[in-house]
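Q: Structure tokens for this one, please.
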Amino acid sequence: MCNIASFSFPICMTVSVALTIAYGTGTSWIEGLNILLGKRLSLGLNSLITNGVTLFGQNLSWIGAGLNAYGERSNEQYTWVDSMYIQVLQHFGIVFCLVLMVILTLAMRKCIKYSDYWMLVILSIFALHGIIDDLIIYVQFNTFWIAIGGVTLKSISDFRKNKLRREQLMAYYDTVEKEIE
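A: Here is the predicted structure, written as tokens:
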């Protein structure tokens, strides 16, 4: 079960993109799901059709239901995309998105390695939440990103310790080899 949980972010990204694209088929169950999700699928599909996806991202301005730069209610068409995965894919591109998925998966694998199952559960919940909310990508709304940095730094520290152990072991073998000769 933990191994599956470690792939939560790529799985949820695939589900998010697949459901958004499937909305274009017009089937009744996907229409019902779109209504249940507050029309998030239709907004995501409109954004994908309008803006597309590039390898290295693009500068997009999504318009929400809030105020404009002058503090007045915006009268422009609502184009905000609530899916973290669609936003990251469009704003930062395919390459960054794939790298991010690899890093998040590796961090979650490290949670398993260090038996940090609570962090694994929390990050899996955030992966699911990212399907319908874009704000969890920002540190100010999700401080658990800092914890991912801690897990990553811990693994880098372990790598350095293992490298030092290998170097010490090689030096020992060299010494033993010289004594044998």
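A few notes: The chain has one domain: 2-180. The chain has a mean pLDDT of 83.
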